[in-house]
Amino acid sequence: MSESVVVKIKFGSHLYGTSTPWSDTDYKSVYLPSASDILLGRVKKTMREGRRDKAEGEKNLPTDIDNEAYSLDYFFELLASGQTVAIDMLFAPEPEITSPTWKMIQRNRDKLITKKASVFLGYCRQQANKYGIKGSRVAAARAAASFFKQAYETCGATFKVEGMSDYIPGLVRIHPDHMAITHYDDPKGVRPSEVYFECCNRKVPFKASVKLAAEIFTKIFENYGARALQAESNEGVDWKALSHAVRVGHEALELMSTGKVTFPLHNAAHVLEIKQGKLPYEQVSKEIEDLLDTVEAAEKISVLRDEPDYEWIDRFVKREHSYIVRHASYAEIEGSNKGKTDVVFSGPIC
Question: For the segment 296-319, what is each residue's pLDDT rounded down to a tens digit?
Answer without folding.
Answer: 899 889 999 999 999 999 999 999
